[in-house]
């Protein structure tokens, strides 16, 4: 990669911004605001999108950037970094090419929607030596960071169990009116949406899933008769809290073959047990994590600024008792409780300098692997499925900061 941000100490020479490209200007395109900071270290110089609307949106928001439908043009633009923000089932198709071109690559989560595609991305990064970063922004969300800090401080002893309940109250608007509703594009929402939570479960517990099983159903949205091809619209065109109850949703995707409720069990390689429940037709929208250790447990009540993480260390009986410790969840500027700015800052630093990161390509792959195989279990009777591990040489490479 070109030498970047040379300090030119004593010369008075200006510091050069990183030249950054974006592939896919859709729902996660808001990340451009964190990248496009001319004069502050980075600038979006080219955007590639196959859709006319995506290109028009990019031209309106970043007038100084070159706008193209040609990935070859982007690859030849002399970039220092690139963000791959395409629909999930095209991540590997694009990321393999950007990595082969030697461009440090940010790949939005999940890595892809099949285990083979996810492994292809990691293998390409390993073989080329090009830096790979995966957009698991929840590793920067205050609620998750603070729960992990408590666990690592020894507040609840050794982790033995993690439970996650995800109430996806916006599920009908977010996932059942566009490409997310089709297995061909997502494999399952247990993977697509759950990749975040599976990764958090792994991170909090310090292990990866080696056996999984799941059950689930298309319990509500499959019976909704109102359907429409929404390819001419975006999610914010139809989103409204008035779209309630779920059985009265309108303009759902013509094809819906993913589940709207799923329940997953995991056995981790360190002996911890975990479960994940996801429902897309609840009235409320938040995540609840419970982590149980050998000396207590923690649980978040709300997952945003001003909500609280509770810690219990004292034995009691009877109903709900006040926790021994209450920790207020911090606030942050920017999307996802300040996680998005931190995520992009970490990626740009990593693309420029290398070094350790809070996110992990290996962990991202393990989240995809668990989600893919849980979906396989769900659709074949709910039996236990073994999760294959990565080759040791890839694990060693990525755990070593992508250094040989």
TrEMBL record:
Species for this entry: Arthrobacter stackebrandtii
Entry protein name: Dehydrogenase
InterPro entries with a match to the protein in the record: Gfo/Idh/MocA-like_OxRdtase_N, Gfo/Idh/MocA_oxidoreduct, GFO_IDH_MocA-like_dom, NAD(P)-bd_dom_sf
Domain (Gfo/Idh/MocA-like oxidoreductase N-terminal): residue spans on this chain: 18-136
GFO/IDH/MocA-like oxidoreductase domain mapped to chain residues: 145-299
Membrane-spanning parts: none
Keywords in alphabetical order: NAD
């Amino acid at each position: 990669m070109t030498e970047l941000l040379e300090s030119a100490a004593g010369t008075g020479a200006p510091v050069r911004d990183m030249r950054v490209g974006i592939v896919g200007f859709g729902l996660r395109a808001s990340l451009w605001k964190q990248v496009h900071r001319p004069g502050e270290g980075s600038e979006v110089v080219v955007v590639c999108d196959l859709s006319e609307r995506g290109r028009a949106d990019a031209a309106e928001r970043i007038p100084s950037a070159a706008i193209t439908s040609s990935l070859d043009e982007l690859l030849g633009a002399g970039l220092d970094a690139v963000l791959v923000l395409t629909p999930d089932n095209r991540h590997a198709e694009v990321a393999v090419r950007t990595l082969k071109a030697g461009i440090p690559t940010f790949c939005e989560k999940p890595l892809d929607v099949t285990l083979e595609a996810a492994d292809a991305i990691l293998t390409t990064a390993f073989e080329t030596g090009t830096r790979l970063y995966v957009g698991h922004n929840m590793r920067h969300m205050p609620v998750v960071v603070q729960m992990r800090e408590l666990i690592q401080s020894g507040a609840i002893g050794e982790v033995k169990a993690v439970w996650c309940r995800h109430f996806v109250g916006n599920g009908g608007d977010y996932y059942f009116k566009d490409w997310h509703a089709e297995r061909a594009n997502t494999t399952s929402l247990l993977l697509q949406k759950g990749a975040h939570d599976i990764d958090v479960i792994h991170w909090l517990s310090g292990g990866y899933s080696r056996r999984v099983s799941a059950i689930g159903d298309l319990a509500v949205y499959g019976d909704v008769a109102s359907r429409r091809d929404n390819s001419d619209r975006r999610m914010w065109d139809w989103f409204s809290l008035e779209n309630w109850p779920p059985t009265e949703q309108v303009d759902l995707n013509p094809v819906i073959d993913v589940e709207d409720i799923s329940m997953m069990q995991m056995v981790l390689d360190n002996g911890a047990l975990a479960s994940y429940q996801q429902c897309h037709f609840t009235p409320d929208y938040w995540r609840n994590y419970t982590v149980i250790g050998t000396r207590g447990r923690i649980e978040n009540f709300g997952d945003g600024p001003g909500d609280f993480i509770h810690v219990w260390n004292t034995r009691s009986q009877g109903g709900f008792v006040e926790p021994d410790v209450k920790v207020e969840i911090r606030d942050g500027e920017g999307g996802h409780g300040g996680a998005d700015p931190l995520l992009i800052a970490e990626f740009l630093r990593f693309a420029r300098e290398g070094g350790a990161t809070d996110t992990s390509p290996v962990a991202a792959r393990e989240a995809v692997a668990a989600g893919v195989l849980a979906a396989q279990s769900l659709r074949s009777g709910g039996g236990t499925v073994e999760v294959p591990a990565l080759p040791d040489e890839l694990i060693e490479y990525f755990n070593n900061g992508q250094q040989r």
